[in-house]
Amino acid sequence: MSRNSILLLGGGGFIGSALRRQLAKQGQHIHVIARTIGNSTESGITTHTGDLGDKALLTELLAECGTVIHLASATKPGTSGRHPTLELGNLVPTLQLLEVLDSWPETRLVFLSSGGTVYGNPLQNPVVETAPSSPLSYHGAGKVAIEAFLNAFRTAGHAVTILRPSNAYGPEQKLNQGFGLIRTVLQHILHGSTLEIWGDGESVRDFIYVDDVVNAINVVLNAPTKSATYNVGSAAGHSLNEVLTVAQKVCGMPLHIHYRPARSMDVRAVVLDISHIESDLNWRPSVTLEEGILRTWDWLKNHA
């Protein structure tokens, strides 16, 4: 029985949408499970409304799919800030997925974790994959918990690749309160409204353009199957103030900014070391911060 199709969980989200289009262009057949995606007319893509808890649907699709890409998430970094139990909406379905996958030991699983939250404030930057996990948010703690279960799943002989992307941005990213700095910045510039920054703006983040994340996933899929954990970042850190400066330069418009007291849940500085994925898979990002902001700005002006 051929199992050449790919099962994409969370294919209706920001990264998932970009990934499914890219895979379909390459001639892959994709089965997408998502809570909010409708019937797709895209060639090579079959959509299914549901979630990871639907064991019957998973079992049916795994008969056709030899690779599972898990991007599904019920939370974002800000949504579970005061409600840690919301992270169970990610953990429990993932464990249900592992129960089903246990009957398909030859299936490759690729999971998108979070390079921006799992390390907390690392002792050294750039931070390598072997550094301690010390999340400051419940969202990051949820990712660490899932990774722990996936590592246990690996010991049973299953191939699991964990990718830890930094802060992804780009065209078609939805506007979400407390999440997606670059998308939020560009929205405020477009409408002339005031952006609130928690802290002094000198916190450093690693921002990566969405196409670079998609390319990293694609490189993993085309490499020999193995278990590994990789950071996926831009290889550069930028303070929030630097991002604001670049955005105003690219857009040619001013940004109104209001600084507020810093929050304990916010990471002070995290930049990902990508030497592992570079040496193993010959992957590097190709889109600079300025070019990525320009592409996102051009898209936003036509879709606001």
What do these coordinates show?
By secondary structure, the chain is of the alpha/beta class. It is 36% helix and 19% strand. Helix 1 (14-25) links the parallel strand 1 and strand 2. It is globular and about 55 Å long. The relative contact order is 0.14.
Structure summary:
The chain has 304 residues and is α/β, with parallel strands linked by helices.
Q: Please give the order of strands in the largest beta sheet.
A: 3-2-1-4-5-6-11
List the helices and strands in order: EHEEHEHEHEEHEEEHEEHEHH
**What structural class results from the helix and strand content?**
alpha/beta
Helix fraction by DSSP (H/I, runs of at least 4): 25-40%
The amount of beta strand, in percent, is 15-25%
N→C terminal distance? 47 Å
What does the secondary structure layout of this molecule look like, with pairings?
Blueprint: E1 5-9, H1 14-25, E2 30-34, E3 45-49, H2 55-62, E4 65-70, H3 88-101, E5 108-112, H4 138-155, E6 160-165, E7 167-169, H5 181-191, E8 194-198, E9 204-205, E10 207-209, H6 210-222, E11 228-232, E12 238-239, H7 240-251, E13 256-260, H8 275-281, H9 289-303
Parallel strand pairs: 1-2, 1-4, 2-3, 4-5, 5-6, 6-11, 7-10, 8-13
Antiparallel strand pairs: 9-12
Helix pairs in contact: 1-6, 2-3, 3-4, 5-7, 5-9, 7-9
Summary keywords:
13 strands; 36% helix; 9 helices; 304 residues; two-stranded parallel sheet; alpha/beta; seven-stranded parallel beta sheet; single chain
